[in-house]
Amino acid sequence: MRLSSSALRRLPPCADHALLAGAAAAAPAPPPARHLFSDPAEVEALRRNLLAWYDRCKRDLPWRALAATEPDADRRGYAVWVSEIMLQQTQVATVIDYYNRWMQKWPTLHALAQASLEEVNELWAGLGYYSRGKRLQEAARKVVSELAGRMPRTAEDLQKLLPGVGRYTAGAIASISYGQATGVVDGNVIRVLCRLRCIGADSSSPAVIDRLWDMANVLVDRSRPGDFNQALMELGATVCVPKAPLCGECPVKQHCQAWRRVERELAFASQKLFGKKTPVPDVEDCGVGDCPLCPPATEPWDSSLGVTNFPRKAAKKPPRVMRTATCVLERRGCHGAPEYLIVQRPSSGLLAGLWEFPSLPLAQDLQEEKEREELAHHLQAWMGRPVAAKGLQFMGEVIHIFSHIHQTYVVYSLHLDGDVTLDPALSPSRWVTEEEFHASAVSTAMKKVLKAHEKQRRKESSPVKTILVLPDLNFGDIPTLSDGNGHFILT
Ligand code: SF4
Question: Listed GO cellular component terms (predicted)?
Fold first, then answer.
């Protein structure tokens, strides 16, 4: 049985524990007490300690300021929604600037609903996971056209009515913007909860995730749910970090089973060192055979890892390896500055709607000569005239890691003279200056490609740093350089 957020909201502060116990009793495999928060007094203390720490130490972030001061409920919900979507898979430090520019450009849902996808992609360029921006804009249009511009007010409705809003985002918007007492579970919360309750089973498995949601709903503070959820996430982001958590500074260490276990082991080790007779510490797992939340028997607690024994995840699938040939087509613009041809990607799939240099996915293990031929053939379509494979200059390789793809771009360059007619029947394409390129909706990977291209060009045009010995010119001991054009330079 899953407790609905609205049911939880109607309960007095401690009734949810009794209800959860009832729910657990009805479930086929009730989790052992060690993995639960079943003591109401402890829950109250944890809420108090965590909120007091948050009030003292929270980071000053633009979306927090907006959520705390914006009187218009729809705008408040929108402001939190934008921040939550941007923060998915992206660091706070990176998001701040994007967030400020976004809110300046589209301060309301109505403003965003009127934006074009091109504008959204341009502002999103560099933030990654581009479908997020597109879905945000689609959902804003839906709120304006189908919900009369009014944001849904509960987590259930937000998740049901807004495309791209999942359980976590819905809970975050509802608790932070509308004060709904509903928990949230994101990567930071998973880490903190797994450590607090020594959960060592695969934290990405549905069974564990369900338990963590139950736990988050039990823990969330009834009078300050938004602050509590942000505090839990803030703790995971700044104190209970993945590799070297700052347990000494942690406001909830007294409630942390993983920390207690480490402390007991340390105490036991030091007593043993001084030859004292002490009872064997209670460092066993929860005592329930085949517990679905304890670490698997094949990977027991490792003392050298301390609290970072938790959380654990099943090994990730290795990323797909891809190789793509891409060509920087270059020409002299009317003022002599270089211009580049960029083409638009399809409107669905990876990097949907973004612009890139003409590119062609390659089969693995293709010979270089064959790669060139295929790319030349592909380019002919854009240029409407034959392209000689030999004319393509190899500029280097650029590696870019997407979440699930290890992509290698094999970068070529081709300089064009005269006018090139682009076939309008193909995907949209245009010539851009370097400045226009950077202002366009291009991915970080394409920016890296242009950078590699420019670096190679600079290398080619800089003087060759070769010291030549010219015995017949009698320069004595003075070193002589060539600039690569047959001119010798005395240094
Ligand atoms: Fe995380 Fe350490 Fe705090 Fe436990 S005591 S919650 S492991 S920082």
Answer: mitochondrion; nucleus
